[in-house]
Design a protein that fits this description.
The protein has helices at 2-25, 46-52, 68-177, 196-207, 242-255, 273-280, 283-290, 319-329; strands at 181-185, 215-220, 235-239, 258-260, 263-269, 295-300, 304-309, 312-316. It is an alpha+beta fold. It folds into three domains: 86-176; 179-270, L1 transposable element, RRM domain (Alpha-Beta Plaits, 2-Layer Sandwich); 272-331, Rec A Protein, domain 2 (2-Layer Sandwich). The strands form two sheets. Strands 2-3-1-5-4 form a five-stranded antiparallel beta sheet, with helices on one face. The protein has a three-stranded antiparallel beta sheet with strand order 6-7-8, with helices on one face. Helix 1 packs antiparallel against helix 3 (68-177) and helix 7 runs parallel beside helix 8. This is Transposase element L1Md-A101/L1Md-A102/L1Md-A2. InterPro entries: L1_C (IPR042566), Transposase_22 (IPR004244). Residues 1-66 are annotated as: Disordered. Residues 29-45 have a biased composition (Pro residues). Keywords: Coiled coil.
Length: 332
């Protein structure tokens, strides 16, 4: 639209300049002689007087009378201006219509967005309200669970202490029930080799006893029966008198190798697995004590190492603590 209006504008200025020159040049012409008093002045033609009257919508160019060509150019200029003005109004009206349509569309979109936001706000507020209620319920439930957990923790700690005490008590009772037992290793598998009579006769021959010891019962360990050529199972026997059990174990320590009926057997105390492992942990400490002059030691029932050195007696239930103490006893 701007390019279209520039061209007529340039022609209008050019034509105005040319009309101005004509208007400024026309006064230089000699004025006609005034009419005589006796001769009447000729009346101007009616058509020219009507055409010379300016239009109310047309600007007054000059008070001087234009020539015919200038007047035609002026009329043409007015026509071009009117056409440009009509085109400008039409384009302006189209632009207004386009802007109104666009504004109406934007208003509808904004209204729809506002409605959607309002709906989303209501839904979000409802969700938040529900979540607040849920969080409140969960907080109340967690508070109750926390109290239960604290109570359960206290109960578990108490039960743990009780179970530990019971385990130690059961271990002590089992080890005490085995104090009259011994284990005999090296007796071949066979029929009537683990009866009380056979075991009593074997012990009498092995240790040179005056009479056979009284046995309550004897049996092989509870393991699968070995195949031919494999190591035989140990025999566990229980003495009726504790003194007989102590005497057999003392003789076994003194003899080191026990010969009986062309057999080489070994006799050990019958300890539980836990006590056997605890007593075996002191083996290295006992070996070191053998190299220290004046140190005496012994393992008390069930698994307690007693060390006596220079009149000082100490008991240990942990092999690590005993090893640290033995390091202090070594000279240098």
């Amino acid at each position: 639209m701007s390019g279209k209006n520039l061209k007529p504008g340039g022609s209008i200025q050019t034509k105005l300049r040319s009309g101005g020159r004509t208007a400024s040049a026309s006064p230089r012409e000699p004025a006609p002689a005034p009419p005589s008093h006796h001769e009447p002045a000729p009346a101007p033609p009616a058509q020219e007087s009507v055409a010379a009257l300016p239009s109310p919508c047309e600007p007054a160019v000059s008070s001087a009378s234009p020539s015919g060509s200038d007047f035609a150019a002026f009329i043409e200029l007015l026509a071009v201006m009117r056409k440009d003005n009509a085109d400008f109004r039409k384009e302006f009206q189209d632009l207004q219509k386009t802007l109104r349509d666009a504004l109406s569309t934007i208003q509808l979109d904004l209204q729809a967005m506002k409605t959607q936001l309002a709906s989303d706000k209501v839904a979000t507020e409802a969700t938040i309200s529900t979540l607040k209620g849920t969080v409140g319920e969960m907080g109340h439930t967690l508070s109750g669970c926390t109290d239960d957990i604290v109570h359960m923790k206290t109960t578990i700690e108490s039960l743990t202490v009780t179970v530990t005490q019971l385990e130690n008590k059961c271990e002590d009772l089992e080890s005490r029930s085995r104090r009259n037992n011994i284990r005999i290793v090296g007796v071949p598998e066979g029929a009537d080799t683990c009866t009380t009579a056979a075991v009593a006769a074997l012990l009498k021959d092995a240790f040179g006893l005056e009479k056979e010891p009284v046995l309550d019962r004897s049996n092989r360990t509870l393991q699968p029966k070995p195949k031919s050529g494999e190591r035989p199972r140990a025999i566990v026997c229980r003495f009726h008198h504790h003194s007989d059990c102590v005497d057999i174990l003392r003789r076994a320590r003194e003899l080191q190798q026990i010969k009986a009926r062309d057999l080489t057997i070994s006799v050990f105390p019958d300890y539980t697995v836990k006590i056997a492992r605890t007593r075996a942990a002191f083996n290295e400490v006992r070996r070191q004590l053998c190299d220290i002059e004046g140190a005496r030691y012994g393992i008390l029932h069930p698994a307690r190492l007693r060390i006596t050195y220079n009149g000082v007696q100490k008991d240990f239930i942990s092999a690590e603590e005993a090893a640290e103490y033995v390091k202090l006893l070594k000279p240098g």
